[in-house]
Amino acid sequence: DQNISSITLDDGKVITCDLIVAEDGSGSQIRQALFPQHHGRKVLNKTVWQISLPLDVVRKDDSLRGLLDEHHNVIILAPGRSIIASPSPSQNIHDLQLIDHEHTLEQDSNPTALNERVFDLEGVKSRFSDFDAATRKVIESVESAFKWRLVEVFDLPSWSSDDGKVVILGDAAHAMTPYSGQGTAMGIEDAAALSELLANASSGSDLRLLTENYENLRRPR
Q1: What confidence category does residue 4 fall into, taking pLDDT thresholds of 50, 70 and 90?
Q2: Could you tell me the residue ranges of all domains in the chain?
Q3: Fewer Cβ atoms within 10 A, N terminus or C terminus of the chain?
Q4: What values do phi and psi take at 91, rounded to 5?
Q5: Whether the Cβ atoms of residue 101 and residue 82 lie closer than 8 Å to each other
Q6: What is the pLDDT of residues 8-49, one digit of tens each?
Q7: CB 66 within 8 A of CB 76
Q8: How far apart are CA 219 and CA 54, in angstroms?
Q9: CB count, 10 Å around CB of 28?
Q10: Neighbours of 133 (CB within 10 A)
Q11: Strand (E) positions, the chain?
Q12: Is residue 190 within 8 Å of 218, Cβ to Cβ?
């Protein structure tokens, strides 16, 4: 209820507050409640398959060294496809995102699932069969990959309610292409900017003005 700044949970519990901050993703229920006429997502003809390997395995396998740079992402480009390989030493993970920029819904074995773990990788193998031996070896070596179809969120007239008591952040406001954690990074930046504005606000501050300042600061970014 945006008029009294409260949220009713599934169990009936009501939480009241001065400001509701929602960062509930590209399928945001809060965005739908605030702007029902602008709610929705456009599913693109682009799909990412994410494969994670133990970083130690990649380091020890000379045939995979072309996919590893200890300090930077490795990006491989091809017509209609690309790969982003990202090491995460702190988690001992080497993450590969195989991106098909021409993957239509008709080509998808389960087009209604935007995000799912896929165990049948024959289509992925076929689509990337002309890539280098290291890429083909990685795909052959795993039993599954996490698939997500990319979507666009329609532009919104605002990122907050008329009274400024409800504000949306991250993909709920501006879905980002999830390459190298860009969506997460932008959500963190949004939260940091809003936190800075709130930290300098007095108890009687105009929330409408505060959320407008947040939006004016973040939209150009």
Answers
A1: low
A2: 6-40+154-219, 42-151
A3: C
A4: -110, 5
A5: yes
A6: 888 999 988 888 899 988 888 888 888 888 777 788 899 999
A7: no
A8: 38
A9: 23
A10: 10
A11: 6-8, 14-16, 20-22, 41-54, 74-78, 81-88, 93-100, 115-118, 145-153, 166-168
A12: yes
Tokens, residue 45: 């003809």
Tell me the average pLDDT of the chain. Answer: 87
Token couple for 143:
């039993």
Alpha-carbon distance of 103 to 99, in angstroms, equals 9
| Global pTM value | 0.70
Q: What does the alpha-carbon distance between residue 123 and residue 73 come to, in Å, rounded to a whole number?
A: 25
Q: What is the rounded distance in angstroms from the CA atom of residue 65 to the CA atom of residue 43? A: 35
For residue 77, the SS3 value is strand
Helices marked H in the chain — which ranges?
29-34, 55-60, 122-127, 133-141, 182-199, 207-218
Give tens-digit pLDDT for 62-110.
888 888 888 888 899 999 999 999 888 888 888 899 999 999 999 998 9
Architecture, CATH, for domain 6-40+154-219: 3-Layer(bba) Sandwich (3.50)
Task: Report the number of secondary-structure helices (H) and strands (E) in the chain.
Answer: 6, 10
Buried b / exposed e over 87-121, threshold 16 CB at 10 Å, is: beeeeeebbbbbbbeebeeeebeeeeebeeebeeb
Query: Between the CA of residue 138 and those of 83, 107, 119, 148, 192, what are the distances in Å?
Result: 12, 22, 14, 19, 37
